[in-house]
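Annex B.
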Amino acid sequence: MLLTLFCLFIAIVVIQFFYYIVVFGKFSFAKPQNGTPKRIPISVIVCAKNEEENVRNLIPLLVEQNYPQFEIVLIDDASSDGTLDIFEEFEKLHSNIKLVKVENNEAFWGNKKYALTLGIKAAKHEYLLFTDADCLPSSKDWISNMSSQFTVEKTIVLGYGAYDKIGGSFLNKIIRFETLLTATQYFSWAKLGKPYMGVGRNLAYKREEFFKVRGFMDHMKIRSGDDDLFINQAAEKKNTTVCYLPDSFTYSKPKTSFKDWFTQKRRHVSTAKHYKLFDRNQLGLFYVSQLLFLLLPIILLAFQFQWIAVVSIIGFRYIFAWITMGFAAGKLKEKDVMYWFPIIEIVLIFTQLNIFVTNTFSKPVHWR
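Glycosyltransferase 2-like domain-containing protein: predicted structure tokens.
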């Protein structure tokens, strides 16, 4: 029995090696990215619901973007606070701002996808760049950097949506490491020609890609997934690329309590079951290998079975995982989280297990 577990442990580490070196290495060890400046007209789309404080900070940074031709499409999704008033103020001040007012619709009550669809249809330009109301672009060249990755064939650009650093907060390090790992995964698979998700905090695509798949219609009843479910459906090797230029990042304020972050992650994870079969399987295999890598050595070491070999294999695994994620962290400006890598990874693995169990017995709350 112990010999079987030992062989299984070796197989798990081989699987981990495949993911970290072969798959994630496609992004982690890639050369620094270059962008070819474009002058294509861009429509920046922001959908907001009760975000008056955030949009007051965001809109001035969008207006000041260093790009020759762009409009800002502001979508107010039936807000009950002062969001619409702020939108109207900025619309009067800037000619390149277009306001889309969404009223509650019984068939699409509180559905962000419905609101986004109206904004996409109202956009003047064919190339669309999305961010959320609680995000801020990292520079005045955000539009320029994201649009630089568009080509005749590459009509979907996956960007990086980071979270602000909070000094002295271990939860913040967990959140940013999880964001780093997720980005490393979807960037890497996109580079391998198997794109499966993107984040609405930083995402760009040509409008024709939206209509090719009938927009959000195939998953309109699923409240989440205006970003990842759309990309899972529309993205393919031929039409998708990534952008990890530092000036292309967006930053959001992270959750400051474990409960709020746990609730947020429940919403994100709940959409994964709607991914294509291959994507569900590869994500599931990675997570199971992560969990078994923690559990199997505990059993083997408890019985002191081949303990020198077990400890050596554990060390080998942490070396290649640390190196791979370290290079990815360097590209995405998240190096400080890597000092805590082993501890954060353990916490994150068991948090994900908790999320899976919780989502099995109750549904998470979505956009309202």
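Strands lie at 42-48, 70-77, 97-102, 127-132, 135-137, 156-158, 161-163, 203-206, 240-242, 250-252. The first strand starts at residue 42 and ends at 48. Further annotation is deferred to the next reporting cycle.
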